Amino acid sequence: MARAPDPAFLASRAQLEALDRADELRRFRDQFELPAGVIYLDGNSLGALCRRARERVRETVEREWGEGLIRSWNGADWISMPQRAGDLIARLIGAGAGEVVAADSTTVNLYKALGTALRANPSRRIVLTERSNFPTDLYVASGLAKHDGSAHEVICVEPGEGAIERVLAQRGHEVAVVTLTHVHYTTARIHDMRGITAAAHAAGALVVWDLSHSTGIMPLEVESCGVDFSVGCGYKHLNGGPGAPAFIHVARRFHHLVQPITGWMGDARPFEFLPEHVPAMGISRFLSGTPSVVGLAALEASVEVILEAPMAAIRRKSMALGEAFVALVERHCAGLGLELASPRDASLRGSHLSWRHPDSLAVMQALIARGVIGDCRPPDLLRFGFAPLYLRHVDIADAVMHLADVLRTREWDREEYRARPRVT
Amino acid sequence: MARAPDPAFLASRAQLEALDRADELRRFRDQFELPAGVIYLDGNSLGALCRRARERVRETVEREWGEGLIRSWNGADWISMPQRAGDLIARLIGAGAGEVVAADSTTVNLYKALGTALRANPSRRIVLTERSNFPTDLYVASGLAKHDGSAHEVICVEPGEGAIERVLAQRGHEVAVVTLTHVHYTTARIHDMRGITAAAHAAGALVVWDLSHSTGIMPLEVESCGVDFSVGCGYKHLNGGPGAPAFIHVARRFHHLVQPITGWMGDARPFEFLPEHVPAMGISRFLSGTPSVVGLAALEASVEVILEAPMAAIRRKSMALGEAFVALVERHCAGLGLELASPRDASLRGSHLSWRHPDSLAVMQALIARGVIGDCRPPDLLRFGFAPLYLRHVDIADAVMHLADVLRTREWDREEYRARPRVT
Prior knowledge:
Two copies of one chain form a homodimer.
Chain A: H1 10-21, E1 32-33, E2 39-40, E3 49-50, H2 51-68, H3 72-75, H4 81-93, E4 100-102, H5 106-120, E5 126-130, H6 135-147, E6 153-157, H7 163-171, E7 175-181, H8 193-202, E8 206-210, E9 229-232, E10 247-250, H9 293-307, H10 311-332, E11 339-340, E12 352-356, H11 360-369, E13 372-373, E14 375-377, E15 381-385, H12 393-408
Parallel strand pairs in A: 2-13, 5-6, 5-7, 7-8, 8-9
Antiparallel strand pairs in A: 1-3, 4-10, 9-10, 11-12, 12-15, 14-15
Helix pairs in contact in A: 1-12, 2-9, 4-9, 5-6, 10-12
């Protein structure tokens, strides 16, 4: 990272530095803890630590737990954290207050959402999704189909423009639920949430959207799109920390339904300890067990920071960073074996980019050794994410400079970069 | 708390101070952060913060997340935490290495365990439990029975000596699963794990034990008792912090079964992102989504501390503390309206005690105002727990002195103690 800028990048760097000086979000970078010598392009996988989250965790562990002990359930209002964090997230996804709670993992929340949606549409047997959907979404759907004894069938379409709509046109009368990830985890391609939701509803199906790669990074309007259920991840663009609680959103018209994992935190009167379950009114019935208080503390703090930035500005900068990355790769990495796997049009993609390269794992490990951190996705993708709150435009120039250098010199072609890490 | 000891307690205090001087566990108290002026008798609800957990959380958040970022999944081996913490907990419950993982909540783990057990015994329709079981256990059982389309029936017996065995003798051939909490959350009564497990097996039923109130506080032998599945809480006697990850134990003979909430963390090759789920070999298939890394860090550290103490010594001191509490209440609170709701014989109970009092909520709030922290359970119970690693014998004398004083002076009979807190 300490090396001098490549002369070929000087003009681009100067332009990007000018963008940084005019950046309406520049004040946010100081709120994050970023290690020296690192350009972090993996906030779409694990968001960086903001200072407020760090302080909130210390406060929660050392004062609320350490000193307050059990009293903090009331005294620090731990008991309201899932709803409080949920209401913050509701503002990011365009849901109403009281329609979101934060707790559990995305997987568990998807199980609850999909399980509830299937019960809400009991005469139909098909769960419709994409074969390239994030694996946990497919595993939850197929697990539920096997488990609930109702002979559900999971139909996975090959991804492609209008593929979901075509199945809906043919077999829509059999489809109980359409479940998709809004921004694809490899290509970053954005699904048409409004159009697909409308097509599903027209066929009498419900929708469950996974917003893991879109929440906190682009404007979302689940209520205006008529979305029935959605879930999303707390540790990607929400910066809630490793294994942060996820969220579940349920449109108010489904708040009378009972989700499958009924537990005491979803009960109307958990501290009366009654043997018969009476689900809480509203979104709280979608809770199950005791949520991670420490995890919620970090998540709540980090979402507060995001809400201080205008979402339109976040999206603008996210697109500008991605555009700069693509333009520089096109200019400086031509002929070096990269092939763009994401939509070329920034308006069609979320906040990351993927490129095919036959030696993607080794290339990424060489980049990480230089302090440029992205990740890999099978079979051959290099993935780079753009977090507008803590990335500078000039970081993009430096990252692509390293990428070009690693490719041109075949620096990646070393034994040490060939070993496959457990987590890629 | 600053008041001088009641003369009536001086002889008892001196005896208890002598026990503290000879306490084989006395060195552990210094490892915990305990607020001044507090006698903490609620470690059975939320265990206290040990210094190692505090430091481990700081390290995980500030160094591993803040500096290591995504690299810490490999570099800090976050990916192995559920199995690593699980192996530590396995030593506490007498399970084999590779039979326990820590993740999710007790409720979610119970759902997985019970859902798997029901699939393993598909020709039977009854889930047998106690009506006074912890509510979340009942809610999970009834939720599963409604959900899985197999017409399961949950039979809740009234608690009582031999009650479960009697139903097994009569209708055992219909019982799929017996699920009970080993140490009762109000009375602390210990179920005969070995006898009930044997009776269930003799009838062809499986068992799912909830060890929430027994793990970390008494010797447990799930493997030797032939237990099929068990779950337990991370934030009670394990001191893992508010909303800590819970655990699930599955006997190795059931590791070929598939649990209902199939997710990517339970897949054999999660980082190959394949559309078809192939469950991981062994206990890892009982994971679902991404676990709370920060929560696991605290839990792992706090369980390490427990494992440094001989479990026989923990149980001995736990019983001695309880015995001292009962003896002092019998001597100093006679005629003040308390009625013991726990077994009088220490060998029949876990590490807490409950007393009936018609104004239990107000009495407990008056005690808490004096710094003696226990809790309440409906309808009229005062509950006091004993954590041998950080409580002194002399604390028991001081706690009962306050209790006697609050009752004798009717200090609890004030407006300010009448309001019902949200969390009791």
